[in-house]
Design brief:
Largest sheet: 3 strands, antiparallel
CATH class: Mainly Alpha
Strand order of the largest sheet: 2-3-4
CATH architecture: Orthogonal Bundle
Helix content: 40-55%
Radius of gyration: 12 Å
Number of strands: 5
CATH topology: Arc Repressor Mutant, subunit A
Order of helices and strands: EEEEHHHE
Length: 84
Amino acid sequence: MRIKKNIAISDTGFVFNPTTGDSYSMNRVGMEILEHLRENRSMDEIVTQMTIEYEIDAPSLEKYFLDFISMLKQFELIDEDNEN
């Protein structure tokens, strides 16, 4: 999965979808996940990296990650046809 190419993301956590005109604010963790997705990393790579960084167990992080991805899909911020 990938962040859509037309999505604008600022360094401060502001996310803008020009297709819908909607904007969102992300926290630091959300921004980190978006950066990993922009780098075309797989879910497994992201979960592995973040479990080490945040000292959280993989099943819990995976649940939070999937919830976040579901939200990104709902807000039309990611391309679903590029799923890893």
